[in-house]
Amino acid sequence: MAKIRLEDLKQIERDSRRKIILDSALDLFSVRDFRSVTVREIARHAGVSIGTIYNYYLNLTELFLDVFLNNIEEITHMLDNMGKDKPPSLEQLCKFYITYLNDNMTFYQMMSHFMLGGEMSPDATQKLDDIMKALMNRMETALYSAGIQNNSRLTSHALFSALNGIMISYARYPGKSDDDIRRHTLLLAKIIAGVFNDSACAS
Amino acid sequence: MAKIRLEDLKQIERDSRRKIILDSALDLFSVRDFRSVTVREIARHAGVSIGTIYNYYLNLTELFLDVFLNNIEEITHMLDNMGKDKPPSLEQLCKFYITYLNDNMTFYQMMSHFMLGGEMSPDATQKLDDIMKALMNRMETALYSAGIQNNSRLTSHALFSALNGIMISYARYPGKSDDDIRRHTLLLAKIIAGVFNDSACAS
Amino acid sequence: MAKIRLEDLKQIERDSRRKIILDSALDLFSVRDFRSVTVREIARHAGVSIGTIYNYYLNLTELFLDVFLNNIEEITHMLDNMGKDKPPSLEQLCKFYITYLNDNMTFYQMMSHFMLGGEMSPDATQKLDDIMKALMNRMETALYSAGIQNNSRLTSHALFSALNGIMISYARYPGKSDDDIRRHTLLLAKIIAGVFNDSACAS
Amino acid sequence: MAKIRLEDLKQIERDSRRKIILDSALDLFSVRDFRSVTVREIARHAGVSIGTIYNYYLNLTELFLDVFLNNIEEITHMLDNMGKDKPPSLEQLCKFYITYLNDNMTFYQMMSHFMLGGEMSPDATQKLDDIMKALMNRMETALYSAGIQNNSRLTSHALFSALNGIMISYARYPGKSDDDIRRHTLLLAKIIAGVFNDSACAS
DNA sequence: AATGAATGAGGCTTCATTCAT
DNA sequence: GATGAATGAAGCCTCATTCAT
Question: Which among A201, A198, A197 has a CA at the least distance from the CA of A93?
Fold first, then answer.
């Protein structure tokens, strides 16, 4: 029994140190494009050595992926906690998602990165797939509540795509401030929500 | 007059050489992620020296941008030529755009790149803005024809976003072949088109 | 008395654990170039921790050296057991040695390593010297029996050199299989034996 | 014609710079084990940038190989120039070779390195094979003159092996000075020469 | 205008060894 | 005595860009 507790403690310590590294990386990513952040910087910022990073992650890509997956999980959890009793409305969901993306530009930077060529191990691919499915389930539920009951899975893919596309297309509209961007993307999110809602009514 | 002709010739030669470089780059990008293509490779493939590349482009980014802008212009022209007399239907437009993106993966790779951190000169930003506006005009026209007459500019932004998002989100769905991807993204394009169409009817 | 037995037991356990480590290392070396084997791998393969390795060896070099010395001792013992009553003939000796080297490529890899720059402690140097002398005695005996009685010590050095050189020079003849190598090196061993034999007769 | 001269000049310049790099590397290798010499050091010592090294060599291994091949060629040429009219005697050849090895410890360090695991491209392997054959021809000729006319190719392999083995086995005899080593290895070379000579007479 | 050799900062990663538990 | 996480120096190599010819 004592032994089990010791192992547990070790695991907890390991997890917490991994979290320190992860959070340090996030910290840096919130300020700079993640592709320009170096291992050295992450290590220094986390207060550990370079080697320690590699004790917790096979390579930089795995660390990036961890950040990415954590983001998706966070979004999923936040969605679960939005409407305690009933699922969020389409508009709530869209606005929330776009707000999250505005607050976490690293997230869609990484999405682009991994989707457009970032090499991933089969293991990582599987994990990503699972976590993504959980998020898609929430989207599907919201669509279902909004009255879209045919093709709901495919439509949730379309909705997810549309929202991601907003940020990809307008996250850096030339000459606009961060606030302008936020306002514009939220507006587009509202339009997307409206379009999907109307479509539900029409059909 | 003779002088003018000589200058013209020079300009023509210059333009054609620039085109050779551009096409060579495109050639390479059709096979590999553009971020992994080096100046040396482009030069060798174009049959010119590295230095020549820099005689025609300030730096690699400008060349990338040229490729990108040419793509947008090409899309715009193709849209213009689709329906000789009447603008394309929403579904036609969406399917066409997604088909183009499937055929030119470099295009949305570059879109992501420039939107998510690629540094651009003010000059380049302006040019991009102009060319993008022309494309957006075509989208707006199609939406207008489909019955979306309120907020049509904003809605065309939303449509553009949604289509881009399809590729970003599903261009590399794990374990799917190129053909699967094409089928899935076209399906999503159809759903998007349908949703926008329904919305037009509903309102 | 009980105490002595306990100490003995401890020593036996210590020796056996050291042997486990040594054998694990040998196991790995039989498959891969010893210079590419890491402490971590040896530890894992031996089923002990990295730290334990360092409880038994001052550093990796000492472990390598231990493997090397054990090899030389093994060769010496095998030579002793070859001809129970009379020493082996020159050809027998040469063939045996080359066969051993073919079977234990790590041995001459290490010989090269230590001879060509591997740092050794004075203590280790002394140990190596002793063990090497024992082997050289066997060679000298064989040469003596073959009729080489002048300069026999020096000649045994020459013979030893010649045999080692065979492996260094032809252990990786380009495009040859392991079997080809074995056949070629054994042939050269036979020639060397013959040359030394003839020389004995001639003088 | 002018053009050809220009190209020639360029090639000459290229060759000479390559030689500068090569000589700088050799310079360093004469003082330190080549495996501990870094690209940075070679570059600094040659007065060029690191990148320049890689303009002339694909990687460090290729540079090492170039040093090695140059050594073999040098030996071959020196052998050719030894006896203007008649080939060198066996003893001359052996002594010369061992002297060369004593003067160029990098040579047999590299021989060991490449023979015992250093990865080589097929192209490099071929080049090495060719150059080695030229050297072996000289050895064979000397053996032939010494009266060894049966199996002369195989015997030249054996002689080559034996000489290499001398250095591998005794280049670092514990507690001996460089001069001691030189004397001892030359002695062994003489014995080897004698043995092969006697053998020729006996048969 | 065309050439292409030279540049060199800086990236990621490895791995023997230590030492607190 | 056993453990194994932490350390961090150091290695090789890439590649956009410049500039003398």
Answer: A197
